Amino acid sequence: MTGRIRIFDTTLRDGEQSPGCSMNLEEKLRVAAQLEALGVDIIEAGFAIASEGDFAAIREVARQCERATVASLARASIGDIDRAWAAVKGARSPRIHTFIATSPLHMRVKLNLSPEAVLDAIQGSVAHARNLCPDVEWSAEDATRTDPDFLCRAVEIAIRAGATTINLPDTVGYATPETYGAMFRDIISRVPNAGEAVFSTHCHNDLGLAVANTLAAIMAGARQVEATVNGIGERAGNAAVEEIAMALHVRRDVMPFTTGVNAGEITRASRMVSGITGMAVQANKAIVGANAFAHESGIHQDGMIKDASTYEIMTPASVGQGATNLILGKHSGRAAFRQKLDELGYALSDNEFGDAFKRFKDLADAKKAIWDEDIVALVDDEVLRGHDAIKVVEVEVYCGSTGPQRAILTLSVDGVETTAAVRGNGPVDALFAAIRKIVPHDAATLQLYQVHAVTQGTDAQAEVSVMLAEAGRTVRGTGADVDTLVASARAYVNALNKLMVKRGRSALGEMATG
Ligand code: KIV
Ligand code: ZN
Fold it and tell me: Among the three residues 335, 352, 381, which one is the final residue of a domain in this structure?
């Protein structure tokens, strides 16, 4: 049993569905370019019918991808499928991914459809998609809680109607490796036309089993896996693409399969997705966590010095970690900075480059040693802010043990500068209150405020994440600076900009008058 496993990355669709992880068009394009560098086979770029923004982002990703297949999700309706096709048809290799729920619970409660009506919908939707596009994936939502006989009938109909890939998702993260693998064996052996399609896994991580379940399905015959960078996704997330790729690589002795993943790009992809979404990676996360290759105990350190393979089953360099160099300093010029950006995979416009270079020079004045991580944080911060209607112009904060803490803040809102001076219970409270005074947004609540240091040392840049929630919408913002309070203001304002975009209103319309 050998073979090539196709990697279907859904960071831009299922991953983006995690609370506060929505990405704008530029962000999706940057992630898509990195996913191509990572070597994934298929990029699910979004859910075209969901919004104009989603549609535009999928269309652009489709136009710009040079190698990967680009897919859009669609429910089992003509309108959804036509919209998905309109979004992906410009791709070198387009795919329509259509789905409908097949479990008794979902069919009854969610769809209010009889099983026979669901089978008709599968036939109609897949046939319609196939008339438009030669590459059609069909998913049986909640497959792991579906009656196996019914699932066999559904899969057979989908393949007969033209589906080229059959995805059997564990939508609610309910399966175990044994049950998930058994389901694939059962369906593949019983469906008469199973040989005409590629079978695919799609696992959620509610019980922490998403990667284990994915590997079990591969052993049972699946040849496509759906996953996200850092495992981001609904609730506890999706199977993590970097964990699957490295498990298949490191344990090829027991799982003799190959992928197209270029493992050296894993760390860069992880950092990019974490930076753009503001979703920090837990330190002990496999493969990409800050501690994934850290050895603390004396016994382990001793073993590592004698031979790294005593405690390391893969090297940090093999996943693109540790390539970090002490790099530029305050005497570095534009050419050296541009070369470093090229190495780190950034293609900035002239204006973006000019702004980033100025920030780099300021940083070099404030900080002795500048590392790759510093450049990544700085450029992400600068590029992310390029199209923001609200920008931080100046931050002044008075703090200390005697109080009261006070912030004087100037924001530019659609080009108009406004200053507010506000007291608060601590400097961060004062700063955020000043933002609220300039751009009132009373219905939004702060859900998360998180700070972490980009590198080591007391002069390290702080990277701040902020999550705001309003009327069921959640957005995350990030900001980086050597001054934690400046980074905090940038992060909050970044989240606020995203909230404005989600509301679809102009920031000026929200400003306090008088
Ligand atoms: O989890 C799920 O079932 C999905 C499908 C839409 C593929 O994301
Ligand atoms: Zn899913």
Answer: 381
Atom of ligand 1 nearest to the CA of 226: 7
474 and 422 co-located in one domain: yes
Q: Both 112 and 232 in a single domain? A: yes
- Positive or negative, the CA dihedral 385, 391, 393, 398 is negative
b/e map 193-224, b = 16+ CB within 10 Å: ebeebbbbbbbbbbeebbbbbbbbbbebbbbb
What domain count does the chain have?
Answer: 3
Residue 68 lies inside a defined structural domain of this protein:
yes
- For 130, the token pair is 């196939």
| Minimum CA distance residue for ligand 1 atom 7 | 139
- Which residue range is the domain that position 358 belongs to? 324-381
Q: Do 479 and 501 belong together in one domain?
A: yes
Dist CA 186 CA 152 (whole Å):
9
The total of other beta-carbon atoms located within 10 Å of residue 11's CB is 33
- Our CA angle for 100, 105, 108, nearest 5°, is 75
Nearest CA owner, ligand 1 atom 2: 171
pLDDT digits (tens, 9 = 90+) for 421-472: 999 999 999 999 999 999 999 999 999 898 988 777 777 888 898 999 998 8
Give 161-190 pLDDT, tens digit per residue. 999 999 999 999 999 999 999 999 999 999
Residue 180 placed within a domain: yes
Residues 7/35, Cβ–Cβ less than 8 Å: no
Is 313 within the bounds of a domain? no
What atom of ligand 1 comes closest to residue 234's alpha carbon?
A: 1
| Cβ contact 287:242 at 8 Å | yes
Return the beta strands (E) in 352-507 as ranges: 390-398, 405-413, 416-424, 445-453, 462-470, 473-481
SS3 string, 241-305, reads HHHHHHHHHHCCCCCCEECCCCHHHHHHHHHHHHHHHCCCCCCCCCCCCCCCCCCCCHHHHHHHH
Q: Are residues 218 and 199 in the same domain?
A: yes
User: Rounded to two decimals, what is the model's pTM?
Assistant: 0.81
Q: Measuring from each residue's beta carbon to the nearest atom of ligand 1, which residues come in under 6 Å? A: 14, 99, 139, 141, 167, 169, 171, 202, 204
Query: Residues 161, 192: one domain?
Result: yes
